[in-house]
Amino acid sequence: MAFPGGNFPTDGELVEFETEEEPKWITVKLKDGSVLQIKMEIVSILRNGNDPNTGIPNYMIQATNIIRLVKVPKELIVKPKKGNEQGGQLYR
């Protein structure tokens, strides 16, 4: 169930939706040799009145970007130093 948040107005109407097809991944090759994949996921849609000039409904869309690192050149990887307090782990 999607919910309004962030800068969504409180007086709008949350509209249920379904996507007609799975969002596509966009592959981006960076000049440093890294390869990223990015796609947008819609979280919620809010109908917020109508345009006063045209009468067309106004829709606000809450979305998030999903980014994954597909490839990174070995020379860009920096090994963590001993005693690093950040913890964390590498994952795929």
Description:
The protein has 92 residues and is mainly β. The chain has a domain at 13-74. Helix content is 0%, strand content 41%. The chain is built from no helices and 4 strands. The chain has strands spanning 13-15, 26-29, 35-50, 57-71. A hairpin with a 6-residue loop joins strand 3 and strand 4 (57-71). The radius of gyration is 20 Å and the shape is elongated. The two termini are 28 Å apart. The model has no long low-confidence stretch (mean pLDDT 87).
Q: What structural keywords apply?
A:
4 strands, 41% strand, mainly beta, 92 residues, four-stranded antiparallel sheet
How does the overall form come out from the CA principal axes?
elongated
Could you tell me the mean pLDDT?
Answer: 87
Largest sheet: 4 strands, antiparallel
Unreliable spans: none
Beta-strand portion reads 35-45%
The percentage helix is under 10%
Determine Rg (CA atoms, Å).
20 Å
The end-to-end distance, rounded to whole angstroms, is 28 Å
- The helix/strand series, from N terminus to C terminus, equals EEEE
The computed structural class is mainly beta
Number of H- or I-type helical stretches: 0
Count of individual beta strands: 4
